[in-house]
Amino acid sequence: MAFRRKIYQSIEELQHDLDEWMVYYNSTRTHQGKMCCERTPMQTLIDAKEVWDDKITALNN
């Protein structure tokens, strides 16, 4: 991780690296956790929203 290997000269430089890392972490890297099951956190969130929407629709009908 760059945060341990790099001395940042500005907050903007740090923010840039942090933004890139967040995209990687949430959209590229798969996770092994109970809820993720080899999906990215973003895909887990999207899938959960679809399930939630289905449940809400069923309750409203």
What is the arithmetic mean of pLDDT? 85
**Record field, number of beta strands:** 0
The major sheet is characterized as: none
What coarse outline follows from CA principal-axis ratios? elongated
Instruction: Determine the fraction of residues in helical runs and give it as a percent range.
Output: 55-70%
Tell me what portion of residues adopts beta-strand conformation: under 5%
Separate helix tally: 3
Span of the ends, CA to CA: 49 Å
**What value does the Rg take, in angstroms?**
17 Å
Question: What is the ordering of alpha helices and beta strands?
Answer: HHH
Judged by helices, strands and strand pairing, the structural class is mainly alpha
Low-confidence spans: none
Number of domains: 1
Structure write-up:
With 61 residues, this protein is mainly alpha-helical. It has one domain (10-60). 69% of the residues lie in helices and 0% in strands. The model has no long low-confidence stretch (mean pLDDT 85).
Helices and strands in order, then pairings?
Blueprint: H1 2-5, H2 11-28, H3 41-60
Write a brief structural summary.
The protein is mainly α. It has one domain. The protein has 3 helices and no strands.
Question: Could you name the key traits of this structure?
Answer:
elongated, mainly alpha, 61 residues
